[in-house]
Design goal:
The complex is a heterodimer of chains A (353) and B (288). Helix content of chain A is 24%, strand content 35%. Chain A has helices spanning 49-57, 99-108, 118-131, 147-160, 177-194, 205-211, 229-234, 239-244; strands at residues 11-20, 23-33, 38-42, 64-69, 72-73, 84-87, 165-169, 197-202, 214-219, 222-227, 249-256, 259-262, 265-268, 275-281, 286-288, 296-306, 309-316, 321-327, 339-344, 348-351. By secondary structure, chain A is of the alpha+beta class. Chain B has 2 domains: 11-42; 47-285, MetI-like fold, CATH 1.10.3720.10. Chain B has 14 helices and no strands. In chain B, helix 2 (46-55) crosses helix 13 (245-272) and helix 12 (232-241) packs antiparallel against helix 13. In chain B, 35% of the residues are buried. The chains are: A alpha+beta (353), B mainly alpha (288). The interface between A and B is medium-sized, with 31 and 24 residues.
């Protein structure tokens, strides 16, 4: 029996495997989550990120491997005993209970001496509704709330039991863009205010980059890379990470004698074996070539000014679309239909699989 | 351009009127008229005659047996139905699809066959017949057989009503309750039960209506011992075959009244329900 304590705790996953029938959802996942950290599990659908979250929560159990909170082994501990707050993708609010009853649920079902008296429970609910800025809505039913408000209720309900770890499954998936941005900032504020270890699942790289202290990238049930947003963005550990994060353009070229070439553009590629290789270049790492640079020919289709940047949609002769972003100040005049040569200023090179 | 924009379906007036007329005539001929006939026939010798027919000891015994049978079969099938639906909708286990098919078995097997099957298992010539006889236990041609047959025939109603409902609701709310520290029983009572209460009541009412009205299976296992093993539907047939029309239709009228009360209850429940279904629909539509 684990007694929940409000202090943040670290989470350790060690060689976790999980299969659903023949489908291997997780393949030997090992991950350290520091106490008080805000970690994003990022990956495409089917990458195993939600399964991993549910294993931390105790809603699924691993086939092999270990899970521990701090130095406590919890691999097979029941979800009710873990002291974990879980926010479901579609919130899973109790439809037949008011907002206040929803938030109070975790306190109401406590037994014996653990259960605060009615007055203390009501006070805690009021505090939590204030924390998520839903004061005065306690008597409403979930069906009378907007999506964003439901999300806040789900958060307050999860926080009511003073969890050691807060887990969120696609917390912003069902919300429109504006609400999403607001709630994102809100979650960061809540995380900083409570100091809880927080793990959230997302398939949206922008969300992960924007919000998380560290990002764990999952693909096919394996962790591809764990690191702070800047590291994941600038030093991708694998071709998958480079392709998934940062809206990179994938340029399939060839390495010969330590030099990568793509349609006439050349780059030094020290240490790479001869053969096909892919260069991942973000839109801001490409630019129209100046005289002495090597470049590859493309045709401009559209030029869209967006804030400080000019976005160029171009295609290669083979029809591959490529996105380029150049600083608008001092940019040359660009007309659709123009032929342009693009230089690769920076990129990450990986041998093609 | 349409001159009457209010009529969105666009059917011409004659089509709508003939459709409505066909439905009204059909319902009147097939459903309302027979019901009126039952009550008219029951009251052919006045209310006194009808009451006198119901006061007959055999009729009273039939009413009592029917109510007792329903009182045993309905709660039992409610319990079993909730368990089966809970297991099927919220858990994965090997043989689940077999169980789902088995639940439907009483619907697909003719009630007469079900009755015969019970006679073969528990009857004197049956598998357990000798043993039961030696221990003085009488199932076939006695009240226990009638209850068993009724349980068999009415088993699917509650489970069938609940399985799609519970499957549609998914496991999220239960998982949320568990992650908040609730135990299994607390989760069922405070989260699952409130979500299924209307479907459950509806299933119970249907189950009850069938339990009181079942004829085929009960007829086979009853043995027609007057005043002992006749239920109301069986009593109706016996009286009718005896040319006691007032008696037959008086018992039939009581059976009809019970059915009408059941239907009224069901309609009342459906009136209450919309608030709830609306809120569910609203919640699911936002995320789909």
């Amino acid at each position: 029996m684990i007694t929940p304590t409000p202090a943040a705790t670290s989470v350790t996953l060690d060689g976790v495997n999980k299969r659903f029938g023949r489908f291997a959802a997780l393949n030997g996942v090992s991950l350290e989550i520091a106490a008080g950290e805000l970690l994003a599990l990022l990956g495409p659908s089917g990458s195993g990120k939600t399964t991993l979250l549910r294993i931390i929560a105790g809603l699924e159990f691993p086939d092999s491997g270990r899970v521990s909170f701090g130095d406590q082994a919890v691999t097979f501990a029941h979800a009710a005993e873990r002291g974990v707050g879980f926010v479901f993708q579609q919130y899973a609010l109790f439809k037949h209970m008011t907002v206040a009853k929803n938030v109070a649920f975790g306190l109401d079902v406590k037994k014996g001496a653990d259960r605060p008296d009615a007055k203390a429970r009501a006070a805690r609910v009021a505090d939590l509704l204030k924390l998520v800025e839903l004061e005065g809505l306690g008597e409403r039913y979930p069906s009378q709330l907007s999506g964003g408000q439901r999300q806040r209720v789900a958060l307050a309900r999860a926080l009511a039991v003073a969890p050691r770890i807060l887990l969120l499954d696609e917390p912003f998936g069902a919300l429109d863009a504006t609400v999403r941005k607001t709630l994102r900032r809100e979650l960061r504020r809540l995380h900083d205010a409570t100091g809880l270890t927080t793990v959230f699942v997302t398939h949206d790289q922008e969300e992960a980059l924007d919000l998380a202290d560290r990002i764990a990238l999952l693909n096919g049930g394996r962790i591809e890379q764990v690191g702070p947003p800047a590291t994941v963005l600038d030093q991708p550990a694998s071709a998958f990470v480079a392709g998934f994060v940062g809206q990179s353009n994938a340029l399939l070229g060839e390495v010969r004698g330590g030099v990568f070439s793509y349609l006439g553009a050349t780059l030094p590629a020290p240490g790479l074996p001869d053969g096909p290789a892919t260069a991942f270049a973000r839109p801001d790492q490409l630019a129209p070539a100046v005289a002495e640079e090597t470049g590859f020919p493309v045709r401009l289709q559209r030029a869209t000014p967006r804030g400080p940047l000019l976005w160029l949609d171009v295609v290669t002769a083979e029809g591959q679309p490529i996105e380029v972003a150049v600083v608008r100040v001092g940019a040359a005049v660009m007309e659709p239909g123009m032929d342009v040569r693009l230089a690769i200023h920076e990129c990450r090179l990986f041998p093609a699989a | 351009m349409r001159s009457t924009p209010a009529r969105t379906t666009g059917d011409p007036a004659w089509a709508r009127f003939s459709l409505i007329a066909i439905v009204v005539v059909f319902v009147g001929m097939m459903l309302v008229l027979p019901l009126i006939a039952v009550f008219a026939q029951a009251l052919a010798k006045g209310v006194q005659g009808s009451l006198a027919a119901l006061a007959d000891p055999d009729a009273l015994s039939a009413i009592r047996l029917t109510l007792v049978t329903a009182a045993i079969a309905v709660p039992l099938n409610t319990l079993l139905g909730v368990c089966a639906a809970w297991a099927i909708a919220k858990h994965d286990f090997p043989g689940k699809s077999v169980l789902i098919s088995l639940i439907d078995l009483p619907f697909s097997v003719s009630p007469v066959v079900a009755g015969l099957a019970y006679v073969l298992v528990f009857g004197l010539q049956g598998w357990f017949g000798r043993w039961l006889d030696a221990h003085g236990i009488k199932i076939i041609f006695a009240a226990p057989g009638i209850v068993l047959a009724t349980i068999f025939v009415t088993f699917p109603f509650v489970a069938r009503e609940l399985i799609p409902l519970m499957q549609a609701q998914g496991r999220d709310e239960e998982e949320a309750a568990v992650s908040l520290g609730a135990g299994g029983l607390t989760t069922f009572l405070r989260v699952t039960a409130p979500n299924i209460r209307w479907g459950l009541l509806y299933g119970v009412l249907l189950c009850n209506a069938r339990a009181m009205g079942e004829f085929g299976a009960v007829s086979v296992v009853s043995g027609h011992v007057r005043g002992l093993t006749d239920t109301m539907p069986l009593q109706v047939e016996i009286l009718y075959n005896d040319y006691d029309l007032v008696g037959a239709f008086s018992v039939a009228a009581v059976l009809c009244l019970l059915a009408v009360v059941t239907l009224a209850l069901k309609t009342a429940l459906e009136r209450l329900q919309p608030q709830l279904t609306d809120s569910i629909a609203l919640q699911t539509s936002r995320f789909s």
